[in-house]
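RECORD TYPE: protein structure
NAME: Bifunctional hydroxymethylpyrimidine kinase/phosphomethylpyrimidine kinase
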Amino acid sequence: MSGIPRVLSIAGTDPTGGAGIHADLKTIGALGGYGMAVVTALVAQNTRGVREVHVPPVGFLTAQLDAVSDDVEIDAVKIGMLQDAAIIEVVRDWLARVRPPVVVLDPVMVATSGDRLLDAAAEDALRGLCTDADLVTPNLAELAVLTGRPVAATWDEALDAARRLHESTGTLVLLKGGHLDGADCPDALVGPVPLVGPGGVHEVAGARVATRNTHGTGCSLSSAMATLRAGGASWPDALVRAKQWLTGALAHADALHVGRGNGPVDHFHELRAPADRAWSAEVWDAAAAVRAGIEECAFVRGLGDGSLERDVFTWYLAQDARYLGEYARLLARASALAPTADEQAFWARSAQSALVEEQRLHSAHLDGRRPADPAPATTAYTDHLHASGRTYGELVAAVLPCFWIYADLGTRLTAARHETHPYDDWLAAYGDPAFAEATAQAVRIADAAAGAASAHERARMSEAFRRSAEHELRFFEAPMALVPARA
Ligand SMILES: Nc1ncnc2c1ncn2[C@@H]1O[C@H](COP(=O)(O)OP(=O)(O)OP(=O)(O)O)[C@@H](O)[C@H]1O
Ligand SMILES: Cc1ncc(CO)c(N)n1
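PREDICTED:
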């Protein structure tokens, strides 16, 4: 690869520029690639719908494909609208001859209106083409057609259907949650464990953007995945970045004022509005729901008003001791990776404090008993931290919620302190202004790392932070469910 991924879109046109090859070329450029396009169909469409489709003779499709591949080394291909079985055959033959290293298939089969766009022969041919792709990106309706089952009504049903499609084709599936109801808009990769990680599913959460301007999101997501993968990202990393970028493009869509129907998204929003908000403010706000979940969970409420049962608290502390021992290793790693002496010293001091605290918890609450085995929520959290240490920025982002969420809770719960509060020492430790200052420094360091990071790296930092915050919530929920004395 030359460094700049050369990405070919094979798709139909949209003269209003929101979908098809136009969306693909904008996406490829926005994410750092060099875009090329072979036209399968000329489509007279706008933001309100499709009027007419003109399909050039298949011989001319072959001529276009060969014109590109005879001359250019192609790093990735994104395939969109293919009108009939003959066209699909031509693309399959060409793929077999040229064998591009990354092939992403967006199986455009069902119109937004729900109408089937392809005849039965073409649907069969497209199922065959799925087996030749590295990634296939169906929406819920297309997943139903490809698996021959009713349209999934819930995310779990959709994951099941995606698993089926993966099993029948051997191809990695990107399941899109755009057509689900509700405030969330998750996507997931479903495929082999070596490609997507434990359980064969890698879910990337997302908030639904309140806009009707979603025209071309499917085209844009699939070409984003092709570009990012060709640029060297793993499939899960590509999805994290693609989704962060696409969510931003949706958030800026209403400002475009293109058309009177379902308008396009703003592919170039990152050029127009370079990130001017602090990274920390962005991720803190994005974690608002998780933070509210922590404040409202039974454990934290009981900790605040002192009604928490002692055995539940002790179980939590024993887990926290296990957690802190591992956490200290990650802080020491941040110290090893730090770009300045100040930051190196800060993380080394933090590692030392975590270890001192671990020892204190052990001696205060375990009375010489064997340390507790780590509970699933503890292992899940520390596994995530270990997996997030590929770069300094990502590691700093992953360790930050442990500072910030505790300092925030400590500050909030300080008002509840009184001399006979059963958990006064816990409240004192995390409400300590020195801990708030250490947290502020960790936030400053993370913002500096985000400022120096590429957009891709920044997306990985945000994802690492988001996941750690979720692990904090699960860590607080675990004692209520698991403490053996309550079983
Ligand atoms: N309102 C929204 N807010 C946030 N993300 C969204 C929204 N709508 C769609 N997406 C995202 O856009 C991508 C495309 O999803 P969708 O399920 O809509 O595919 P599609 O139907 O193929 O798209 P298209 O509308 O282009 O045909 C997914 O990443 C999905 O999560
Ligand atoms: C050319 C083309 N491809 C895909 C879609 C789906 O958004 C569209 N509207 N037009």
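COMMENT: The mean pLDDT is 93.
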